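Backbone-to-sequence.
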């Protein structure tokens, strides 16, 4: 299977999901769902979705972020999103998703913001 995301747990128990090819397309949307559901299903998980290197978020990816956010709320998990490109943050603001998704301009601030 050709994967578009990479997921790895760090020592602090945060599952860090990245898009190594810099693409957040339909394949990555499905893989994000699978990786996040596996991580948060029945756990008090910390999930960091990192869009470093991604230029645009399509509507499918934005919708999946909403779905993952709902799942994290239901399970007591936490979701933080890294959007270093100003245009990506603008997409979140234009769709009003910045009100429900914790978005950060860099990985360090996103990691620091996780509750202990």
């Amino acid at each position: 299977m050709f994967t578009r995301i990479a997921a790895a747990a760090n020592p602090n128990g945060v599952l860090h999901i990245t898009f190594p090819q810099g693409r957040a397309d339909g394949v990555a949307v499905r893989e994000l769902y699978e990786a996040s559901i596996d991580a948060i299903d029945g756990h008090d998980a910390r999930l960091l979705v990192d869009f470093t290197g991604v230029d645009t978020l399509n509507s499918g990816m934005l919708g999946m972020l909403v779905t993952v956010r709902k799942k994290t709320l239901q399970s007591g998990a936490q979701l933080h999103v890294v959007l270093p490109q100003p245009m990506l943050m603008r997409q979140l603001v234009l769709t009003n998703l910045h009100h429900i998704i914790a978005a950060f301009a860099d990985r360090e601030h996103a990691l620091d913001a996780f509750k202990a």
